[in-house]
User: Fold Pyridine nucleotide-disulfide oxidoreductase from Streptomyces albiflavescens.
Amino acid sequence: MVGASLAGLSAARSLRKQGYDGRLVVIGDELHRPYDRPPLSKEFLAGTLGEAELALETDDEDLAAEWLLGVRATGLDHAARALWLADGREVRADGVVIATGAAARTLPGSEGLVGVHTLRTLDDARALRDELARGGRLVVIGGGFIGAEVASTAYALGHDVTVVEAAPTPLAGPLGETMGAIVSALHADHGVRLVCGVGVKGLSGETRVDAVLLEDGRSIPADIVVVGVGARPNVEWLEGAGIALDNGVKCGADGRTSLAGVVAVGDCANWYDPRAGFHRRVEHWTGARERPDAAIATLLAGGAVEPGVPRPPYFWSDQYGVKIQFAGHAAGADTVTIEAGAADDRDVLAVYRRAGDPVAVLGMNQPRLFMRWRKQLAATAS
Ligand SMILES: Cc1cc2nc3c(=O)[nH]c(=O)nc-3n(C[C@H](O)[C@H](O)[C@H](O)COP(=O)(O)OP(=O)(O)OC[C@H]3O[C@@H](n4cnc5c(N)ncnc54)[C@H](O)[C@@H]3O)c2cc1C
Assistant:
């Protein structure tokens, strides 16, 4: 198992659940045991949830695994059935699960400037939380979900917050323009400035950041900057291993890769979507948790499993006290209708349809109705 986070842990659990009782080695480059990332931009950053509560393993859980933590896998030699580690060790394996997730994208030229943060790991979250505790003006670059959650948490902590987004509407990619605009209106509702449709040229400051420079010549004063411009799959270590890579590890609908005995799961895996007829890499908690079951069945059966149709992807986000939930794919929908609630109240259930069939559903503070629609989507999909 390479990657000791949600997808790696879920795959380890699946192995044991599906009857594998052999040697199991989990390799992770972070020093921490598996922990949950969603709270890092929410309750943990707000200081209402402690580190112990992030643990993904239960107290009495024993997967009888060997944990090699704080060490990076640097290569895979398929012919030799070996994994190479950064400390020179070699691990022999009959089967390999790639679960190396994704890393936050950075802003070129911002490295080393004090006050500039990305948010992907517990260590990132600790550093940002400490910085926020000292106060100051926060500029968030990127109005996607993580950027929006950081803005919302920092607002609740009493910060002066500006969000800069290069696209005309934040969240237009995952939610479509209409609903993206409704969700991102939450910023303005709370007095958080949203600057859209303009790119970031760079950051200014000698040793510490003091402003974000925009491409239109404006400069936004900043004491703290969070760069929330997406993530890239952690697959560099697989270059030259002979495995098909394309926006992550290219996988079939059951997690199999181009190499026998090797499957990939979670944020690093670009799974084939049989409904859409193309590959999609999904960076959501639920996919990283659920899909390992199918990948492990494939691994244990030597690839002889008929892949099922996966449930439509699902994610949630918490911003300014509003629970946002989304399932399915907005791209390709030809209509979006509000089925319940009202956009102005930020209390909405919206259904996306293509040729009359529901393809996605969005809820804002509509958890019960959302779950009903999510079930219906899954039934239609299968
Ligand atoms: C701040 C934040 C908030 C989020 N909020 C939500 C949310 O509200 N809703 C939602 O659906 N999703 C959310 N997500 C996404 C969700 O957390 C991810 O989809 C999930 O963590 C993916 O799990 P993973 O195991 O595939 O990857 P990761 O969690 O990225 O874990 C991969 C692990 O592999 C390690 N690794 C990488 N390369 C190597 C190597 N070569 N050798 C050894 N180890 C390696 C990494 O260091 C990491 O520990 C959020 C993510 C973040 C960062």
